[in-house]
Amino acid sequence: MCIIAYGIKKDIGNQRFQNCLTNNPDGFFLLGFKRGNEDNKPAFLIRTLLKKEVVATWEKIPNDYIVLLHARIKTHGSISEKNVHGWNGDNWYFCHNGILSLKNKGDLTDSETFFRYLFLPAFGKTDIEETNEGIDDMVNSVIGSSKFVFWKKGKMLFYGNFERPDKNKFAYFSNNSYQKKEYSYCSFYGDEVYWNNKTGYSKYSKTYNYSKKYYSFNSKLIPEKRVQ
Length: 228
What we know:
Layout: E1 3-8, H1 9-12, H2 14-23, E2 28-33, E3 44-48, H3 51-60, E4 66-71, E5 87-89, E6 92-97, H4 110-123, H5 133-142, E7 147-152, E8 155-159, E9 171-173, E10 192-193, E11 204-205
Antiparallel strand pairs: 1-4, 1-9, 2-3, 2-4, 5-6, 6-7, 7-8, 10-11
């Protein structure tokens, strides 16, 4: 699951921004723009696999600018720069959080497949208006429980349920991975720890010193050899 965050930069805050990156590390998209600006491109824009690059862009954006962030965890498509969200075409930019019930094209994500092959052919030449019934109808037919954000010329369209942690601040998140994750400690008999290779983890072997604090794992652990 990925995360989308949008709002005023100072209201999102540096800590929540960093949490989004840490918890969703497979690619980053960030744009920033001044309210009322209707340029074809945002003032600040980056798509990258490197955390240090998106952090550098974040630090350049003024605190009163509107920002749109997408941080990815791989589901469909490889971990590569071309699969980082924030795809653009005809001055539209698009981010998605969730899984769509459609077949992705080749190594494209399900999100980019929707954007390139469904959305742009139908609405690429249109702008965001006060009412957008045609877009609403298309999105509602595919979105399910996902969240979408579209940006064009300083305006945004949002679809899905976003969390607003502080009702006094303009900061919205597509799920709770803006929060700092706390991982529980586990210990094992013997020296083997098994990780699930299918979800991208490796197998490790380690000798533990049980007189010290339990070893911590950022993963769901297979229950074999677990100390109850």
